[in-house]
Amino acid sequence: MTVIEDELSLVFSALADPTRRAILERLAHGDATVNQLAEPFSITQQAISKHVQVLERAHLISRTRTAQSRPCLLDTERLDEAAGWIARHRQVWAERHDRLDEHLAALRTGEPCAEETTA
CA spacing 20 to 30 A to 114: which of 65, 81, 90, 104? Predict the structure, then answer.
């Protein structure tokens, strides 16, 4: 497994949780502290802090220090990488799906598939 795959696994794992996705959506509108991120949720600040740690580990957010405050910032680089991975593989998946559709249609009509006629 390459380093990129490990990083993608961290990103996709972090994105799998709806609370973390909501946190990222909130940060898309601007920086926020953990207290500010916790406001709309009915979970503890400690639970939000754990979600923030997962997002930091996946490099989806970073934290800065401003006096006593440590605001969270959205870091879109890893999101862009994940979106790029999805885009690259979407074409392969679409082609496979199209071939499956053709095969199933041929089975329904009793005609040989294009692959069978060229073999």
Answer: 90
